[in-house]
Amino acid sequence: MFTGILPVVLCLVAVAYGGKDKPVFSDEIKEIVQTIHDECVIITGVAEEDIANCEHGIFKEDPKLKCYMFCLMEEASLVDDDGTVDYDMLVSLIPEKYYERTTKMIFSCRYLGECYILLI
């Protein structure tokens, strides 16, 4: 349903959590992000506090948080049938203004393990 706009939305979310300079989202984008967020929270059981802490650079070593992030990427069609994230596609969608900061954040998470909850 949201697959056309979702990759861009996810990149904007990554940018929003990636630094102090926060982009402003339209109400439509906020609604899409909230819907996906709510669904992924239910699926993974992640704590809202752990998600909020990511905005401040605090990434708890928690399988539920990793699975939440994976769920977001899966909803954006950035994950293939084998569960492999297409990081190059994700990075290609990042606005130039945020590219350096956000790509460092994305690639630092590249090899953190897999989320088996969502691959079942």
TL;DR of this structure?
By secondary structure, the chain is mainly alpha-helical.
Defining key terms:
120 residues; OBP18; Recoverin, domain 1; PBP/GOBP; mainly alpha; globular
Explain the overall architecture:
One of its GO terms (biological process) is sensory perception of smell. This is OBP18. Keywords: Secreted, Signal. It is found in: Secreted. GO terms for molecular function: odorant binding. With about 120 residues, this protein is an all-alpha fold. It has a single domain, classed as Recoverin, domain 1 (Orthogonal Bundle), CATH 1.10.238. The protein is about 55% helix and about 0% strand. The chain has 6 helices and no strands. It has helices at about 5-15, 25-45, 50-55, 65-75, 85-90, 100-110. Helix 2 (about 25-45) crosses helix 4.
Distance between the ends: 22 Å
Taken in chain order, the helices and strands follow as HHHHHH
Total DSSP helices: 6
Q: Which structural class matches the secondary elements? A: mainly alpha
Kindly state the mean pLDDT as a whole number? Answer: 75
**Tally of extended strands?**
0
Shape: globular
Alpha carbon gyration radius: 13 Å
Largest sheet: none
Poorly predicted ranges: 1-5
CATH fold descriptor: Recoverin, domain 1
Q: Can you say what the CATH homologous superfamily is?
A: Pheromone/general odorant binding protein domain
User: Portion of residues in helices?
Assistant: 55-70%
Tell me the fraction of residues in β-strands, as a range.
under 5%
What is the correct CATH architecture? Orthogonal Bundle
User: What's the number of domains?
Assistant: 1
CATH class category: Mainly Alpha
